[in-house]
Backbone:
């Protein structure tokens, strides 16, 4: 950098350097590792348990607990964007004229220096060779430009100048991707909701902060179904949903994993399921002193008197995972038994073990005979207006990479020298801005092809 | 013939090809390299048949899914993509000195799939999240990408084995020292160019692989990107190879230094593939 450069110019040059690109990419690659090793979005308790208080403070300061959204990580991404924009502006202004020249010129000396030159001699005279070569060159490559002098004729053709724009497309696609992500982060949301079969809701809760989001329509879950393979692994989760807008049933459809519902910019995905808390159960109460049994339906929260006026039982609720001395007993109801003159106590009634409460060896034992089993469906509800920018970025990135890597600017020069005896010496040379090796192979193929044509005779 | 027979044969045949290639390298016998190539192509035929049969068998079992659903299947497919790419390069560039660097990788992937007791070769039904055509596009493109990087890695280690190094950073036209070991290896320029070509191939497919993965995630979970460790590591790999390309195209890096970047990139590939599965946790339960 020269001393006379002004400060703005120096800043411009700083953002213009590929060194900056490389350093930023290295930093991004290295720091991205952190988030794959350190727990993300955990609770303070979890961090303190795993890393200790001191480390936790450090984690908080640098937002390592959500590092892909930390200010310094976003700063690196922003740096990348500025770098791309500045570089592209600078380069485009430089090479625009090269990509779209007013007139195509070529310098034969440049071709002569290349190591890829192919030479052979044809038995035909220069005029004939000239005609064949020109036809062939214009067909293979493009319009032929000429530069002849007394002894030699030169034919030049080129293709793929525009492919130099491929790199700009790739870089633009990176910007588009990040723009899409930004739009999604600002104007979109990701939320979850659980709906019991038969229930409906209009409110969902954002994944991170659990804030409620009110939708413009109501989602009702008519039915949830899970199918299993004979190996016991799940085969399919399916929710039958109805969308109700302004009181009208607008749409009823099934959603499955990988087959979401998209409705008015809101996407609804099948994400989890479970057993809904039932409202009632049919409970059998056995009086072990008399052998007498009664069976009746009890609402959750309801208290029933026990036989003989011995006390009462209240059905308190339902647990998806009943913990008994550290063991998970599965789904269970629980309730409270109050016997006259004794302290009341809680009991669990796991559904898988009907005799469980009998083993308590009390006067009364309880078990759940049946209940109406209902599922809840866990839905992920998202809105992401940025996703189309991201998808456009994807398409551009693939196209741009394709053009950049597999297409190139290639130019070819055929030089003809008339020799004694009506023969002609032919030089075939080429230049490219990309794979020289490929060009070399291509030139060899071209030369063989031409040579064979002349050998066959014209 | 069933798939498990075809795939065990494949392992054996790739092993044989590797032995031939090492023999040709050690004893400077062109014949052995030819035999190696022929054997490898035979192995590739078995490999293809094995994958095809496994596909058919999964339909016969009533599960009906493409054979890309677990670690075993992905390793078998990884061998297949590496072999495919290597055969293509051999045919296109007619160089027979490379096999010794690539064939061991092809053999190791499938051998690891067969011999590691932790990897089950059973055909299992697909869990709901994997039932998507994007799975097929995602796995095929990712593994073509990995294959490109693996072959580039094979070329890159030549720089650390072959004597007669060109001066660093410059493409040298100097031929390698014609000693016993390296006499049959091609010129540095060719190795340099081929390494680059393979990285480019890998990069394009890794890019498409990451993109198809993102589109799939968006249709299954409603998020195209969730910074899951596997996603993040594939992005890290992508960054490393993007660095590789900028160093080469804009900063004029070549040869040994650049080969080092390609090796670092391949380590990232391996970590994305194995490390994440065994050391970290996330959504991806397989390669
Ligand atoms: C990820 C963020 C990226 C950044 C920040 C970045 C930045 C840059 C910059 C600043 C340059 C030099 C300026 C120029 O010549 O236009 C450059 C050149 C280049 N970039 Fe990138 N780039 C990125 C991604 C990519 C990707 C994904 C590719 C893959 C196709 C790529 C391919 C290239 C190529 C081929 C060049 C050389 C251009 C030439 O030969 O004229 N870049 N990049």
Residues:
């Amino acid at each position: 950098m020269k001393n006379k450069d002004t400060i703005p110019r120096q800043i411009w040059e700083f953002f213009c350097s590929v060194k900056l690109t490389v350093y930023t990419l290295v930093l991004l690659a290295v720091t991205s590792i952190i988030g794959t090793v350190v727990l993300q979005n955990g609770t303070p308790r979890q961090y303190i348990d795993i890393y200790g208080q001191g480390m936790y403070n450090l984690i908080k300061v640098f937002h390592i607990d959500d590092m892909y959204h930390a200010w310094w990580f976003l700063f690196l991404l922003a740096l990348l964007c500025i770098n791309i924009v500045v570089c592209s502006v600078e380069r485009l202004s430089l090479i625009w004229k090269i990509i779209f020249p007013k007139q195509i010129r070529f310098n034969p000396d440049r071709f002569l220096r290349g190591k890829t030159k192919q030479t052979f001699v044809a038995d035909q005279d220069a005029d004939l060779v000239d005609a064949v070569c020109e036809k062939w060159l214009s067909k293979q490559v493009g319009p032929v430009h000429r530069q002849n002098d007394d002894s030699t004729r030169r034919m030049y053709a080129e293709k793929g100048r525009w492919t130099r724009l491929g790199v700009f497309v790739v870089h633009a696609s990176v910007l588009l991707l990040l723009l899409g992500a930004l739009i999604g982060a600002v104007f979109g949301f990701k939320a979850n909701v659980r709906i019991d079969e038969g229930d409906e809701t209009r409110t969902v809760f954002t994944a991170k902060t659990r804030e409620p989001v009110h939708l413009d329509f109501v989602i009702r879950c008519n039915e949830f179904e899970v199918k299993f393979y004979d190996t016991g692994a799940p085969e399919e989760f399916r929710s039958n949903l109805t969308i109700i807008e302004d009181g009208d049933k607008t749409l009823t459809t099934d959603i499955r994993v990988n087959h979401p519902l998209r409705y008015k910019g809101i996407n609804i995905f099948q994400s989890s399921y479970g057993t809904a808390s039932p409202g009632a159960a049919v409970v059998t109460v056995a009086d072990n002193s008399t052998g007498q049994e009664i069976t009746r339906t009890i609402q959750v929260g309801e208290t029933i008197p026990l036989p003989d006026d011995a006390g009462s039982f209240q059905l308190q609720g339902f647990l998806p995972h009943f913990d008994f001395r550290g063991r998970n007993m599965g789904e269970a109801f629980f309730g409270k038994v109050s016997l006259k003159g004794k302290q009341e106590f809680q009991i669990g009634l796991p559904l898988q073990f009907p005799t469980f409460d009998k083993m308590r060896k009390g006067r009364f034992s309880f078990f759940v005979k049946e209940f109406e089993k209902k599922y809840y469906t866990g839905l992920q509800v998202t809105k992401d207006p940025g996703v189309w920018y991201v998808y456009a970025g994807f398409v551009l990135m693939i196209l741009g990479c394709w053009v950049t890597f597999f297409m190139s600017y290639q130019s070819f020069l055929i030089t003809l020298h008339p020799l004694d005896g009506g023969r002609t010496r032919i030089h075939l040379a080429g230049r490219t801005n990309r794979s020289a090796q490929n060009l070399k192979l291509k030139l060899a193929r071209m030369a063989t092809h031409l040579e064979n044509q002349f050998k066959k005779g014209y | 013939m069933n798939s498990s027979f075809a795939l065990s044969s494949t392992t054996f045949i790739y092993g044989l090809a590797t032995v031939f290639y090492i023999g040709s390298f050690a004893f400077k016998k062109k014949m052995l390299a030819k035999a190696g190539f022929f054997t490898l192509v035979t192995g590739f035929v078995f490999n293809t048949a094995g994958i095809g049969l496994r596909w058919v068998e999964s339909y016969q079992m009533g599960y009906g899914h493409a054979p890309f659903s677990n670690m075993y299947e992905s390793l078998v497919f990884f061998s297949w993509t590496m072999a495919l790419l290597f055969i293509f390069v051999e045919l296109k560039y007619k160089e027979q000195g490379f096999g010794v660097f690539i064939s061991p990788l092809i053999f190791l992937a499938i051998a690891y799939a067969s011999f590691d007791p932790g990897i089950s070769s059973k055909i299992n039904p697909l869990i709901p999240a994997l039932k998507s055509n994007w799975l097929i596009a995602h796995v095929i493109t990712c593994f073509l990408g990995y294959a490109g990087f693996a072959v580039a890695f094979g070329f890159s280690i030549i720089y650390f084995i072959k004597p007669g190094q060109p001066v660093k950073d410059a493409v040298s036209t100097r031929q390698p020292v014609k000693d016993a070991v390296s006499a049959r290896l091609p010129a540095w320029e060719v190795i340099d160019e081929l390494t680059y070509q393979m990285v480019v191939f890998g990069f394009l497919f890794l890019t498409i692989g990451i993109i198809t993965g993102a589109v799939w995630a968006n249709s299954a979970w409603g998020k195209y990107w969730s910074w899951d460790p596997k996603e993040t590591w594939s992005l890290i790999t992508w960054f490393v190879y993007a660095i590789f390309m900028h160093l080469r195209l804009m900063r004029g890096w070549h040869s040994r230094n650049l080969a080092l970047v390609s090796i670092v990139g391949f380590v990232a590939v391996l970590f994305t593939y194995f490390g994440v599965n065994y050391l970290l946790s996330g959504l991806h339960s397989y390669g």
Notes: The pocket of protoporphyrin IX containing FE is lined by residues A 18, 21, 80, 83-84, 87-88, 91, 167, 170-171, 174, 401, 404; B 242, 245-246, 249-250 (CB under 6 Å). Residues 166-183 of chain B have pLDDT under 50 and may be disordered. Residues 1-126 of chain B form one domain.
